[in-house]
Write a structure and sequence with these properties.
Blueprint lengths: L1 H26 L5 E2 L2 E2 H30 L19 H9 L12
Antiparallel strand pairs: 1-2
Helix pairs in contact: 1-2
Length: 108
C-alpha cells in the first residue's frame, strides 16, 4: 500500500509542477520583475543552468577520478624454469626468432 501512496504523490507533484511551469513560461505577468528579470525569463534560465551544472559536475567527476586513480601495475613476464635437458640459449633463440616452418626450408 505504501508504494501506491508514493506513486500517487509523485504523480500529483509532477502534474502540479507542469502546470506551474507552463504558467511561469506563458501566462505570468511580464511586468512582474524578480532580480531584474521577468518570471518567464527565470523559468527558462533556472532549468538550463541546472542542466549545464549537472553536465559540468559529471565532467569534473570524471576528471577527478582520472586524476586520482593510480596507474595499473606493470605485468611482469615470468620466466619458465628450464629443465636440465634443455640447452640454455638454443631454446631461447627458437622462441624469439622465426616461425616453426623456417627450420626445414633451404636457403640458397
Amino acid at each position: 500500500m505504501r508504494e501506491v501512496t508514493q506513486g500517487r504523490l509523485l504523480f500529483a507533484v509532477s502534474v502540479i509542477t507542469m502546470i506551474v511551469y507552463f504558467w511561469a513560461l506563458f501566462l505570468s505577468p511580464q511586468d512582474e520583475v524578480l532580480l531584474g528579470r521577468s518570471i518567464s525569463d527565470w523559468a527558462l534560465l533556472i532549468p538550463v543552468m541546472i542542466f549545464v551544472y549537472l553536465f559540468l559536475f559529471v565532467v569534473a567527476w570524471i576528471g577527478w577520478t582520472m586524476a586520482t586513480t593510480p596507474p595499473p601495475l606493470p605485468v611482469l613476464k615470468r620466466k619458465r624454469p628450464q629443465s636440465e635437458g634443455e640447452g640454455g640459449e638454443v631454446g631461447e633463440d627458437r622462441e624469439e626468432g622465426g616461425s616453426e616452418g623456417d627450420e626445414g626450408e633451404d636457403t640458397a
